[in-house]
Amino acid sequence: MMLSRLLEATVKRRLAQFPAVVLLGPRQVGKTTLATVIASRHKGAVVLDMERPSDRAAVAEPELFFPSVSDRLVVLDEVQHLPQLFAALRPLIDADRRPGRFLLLGSASGELLRQSSESLAGRVSYVELTPLRAAELPPDLATVQNLWLSGGYPLSYLAADDEAALQWRQDFIQTFLQRDLPALGLRVPAETMRRFWTMLAHLQGQMFNASLLGQALGGASHTTTARYLDTLVDTLMVRRLEPHLANVGKRLVKSPKVYVRDSGVLHALLGLASVRDLQGHPAAGASWEGFVIEQVAAALPAEAQMGFYRTAAGAELDLVIEHRGRKTGIEIKFSSAPKPAKGFWQSLQDLKIATAWVVAPVARRYPLAPGVEVLPLHELGVAIADLA
Questions:
Q1: Comparing 73-77, 117-121, 273-277, which segment has the lowest mean pLDDT?
Q2: DSSP character for 108?
Q3: Tens-place pLDDT, residues 264-274
Q4: I need a surface site. Which of 55, 273, 321, 352 has the fewest CB within 10 A?
Q5: 239 - beta bridge partners?
Q6: Beta strands 316-323 and 305-310: pairing type?
Q7: For 16-72, how does the pLDDT look when each residue is reduced to its tens digit (9 = 90+)?
Q8: Is the pLDDT of residue 338 over 80?
């Protein structure tokens, strides 16, 4: 089954504007498939995989190879394995600023961004391909439920059954820990990182406390646990959601919240194999919250800011979206008849938010109060687009 990705239009648009586009995303998220589709529409496009020795050999002398294909789109997959290419591309782009020359694919890491930023600043546009979004699939509750359980990695979502999907994700986690992290130059013992990642799964949506996690890891320092978190954030496995620090004259919570980004990976780490397992689990609400947050993040314009709001007195809002000077509040409820608590209404008052949504597993959109609507997941993309 071929899945159409919404980001395809964005990548095409950026290629029409910039000499180079960097398509970032974790392994197996569909970068290569998307790039192949785009390359097929460029006559004579050259597609090279930097994990393949023969392709690495082809670009070993970049000043000879790239001029020979200067009239074609060049796609370089897993480019983080050959970081010296970034410096080599800079003079080529400076000599010919035509748009659409290079499409670079990378399993994102902080190091990859630093390499490209230093060498290609002002010459490149960054685009992140996330796991599958609800907006890319049929808008029915059964589909949303399957996406929530299996997560958005295409090979997990498209697996024959729940057991096969779980096995794929377990293998993905193992490969990521044992091969991908070392390949990115990150020297963290696989079993230690698995334990840390699993701890984060059990703390889905809670405040990050480096010292407490370090004690649970056998006495690791808070700097070590913070570094582990940085690693999982850089590789797009975990989201660190920062607080929205408004000047409201109240004492605010300032620690970040953490979420395992893909709900399917979260469920694999928690050992949840079926919808029945998930719905009866204490982490179901936090899992749904993280799932919705990823849908929101993927739909937001690049310049929009996203954070959460919480005061020491108990006012709380799951998400505050700030875009073009306007704030929108989002509360996330795992309920077919959601009823926000008092802290939600207090937050809207504190932040002077006139528009807010309560996102829940409901079939249709309906008003809850003036300026507040309950939204099903498939309506989110349209609502967010209206913000622009």
A1: 117-121
A2: -
A3: 999 999 999 99
A4: 352
A5: 259
A6: antiparallel
A7: 999 999 999 998 999 999 999 999 999 999 999 998 999 999 999 988 999 999 999
A8: yes
**Distance from C-alpha of 22 to C-alpha of 37, rounded to nearest angstrom:** 16
The residue count for the chain: 388
Half-sphere exposure of 211 (CA within 13 A, CB side): 1
- Through-space distance between the first and last CA atoms of the chain, rounded to whole angstroms: 33
In whole angstroms, give the CA distance from residue 140 to residue 142. 6
Token reading at 225: 């646990």
Q: Which of 34, 36, 49, 119 is nearest to 79 (CA)?
A: 49
Q: What is the pLDDT of residue 264?
A: 98
DSSP state at residue 79: G
Tokens representing 327 are 């704030």
d(CA 210, CA 162): 34
Give strand pairing partners of 222.
none
The domain segmentation of the chain, as residue ranges, is 7-128, 134-387
Pairing of β 124-128 and β 238-241: unpaired
- Residue 198 and residue 271 in contact, taking contact as beta carbons nearer than 8 Å: no
pTM value surpassing 0.85: yes
Interval 72-91: pLDDT, tens: 999 999 888 888 888 889 99
Say how far apart CA 321 and CA 306 lie, in whole Å. Answer: 5
Environment class of residue 145 by beta-carbon count within 10 Å: exposed (0-12), middle (13-18) or buried (19+)? middle
CATH 3.40.50.80 fits 7-128, yes or no: no
Question: How far is the C-alpha of 141 from the C-alpha of 147, rounded, in Å?
Answer: 10
d(CA 113, CA 229): 17
How far is 73 from 165, CA to CA, in rounded Å? 35
In whole angstroms, what separates CA 379 from the centre of its chain?
Answer: 20
Number of Cβ within 10 Å of residue 119's Cβ equals: 18
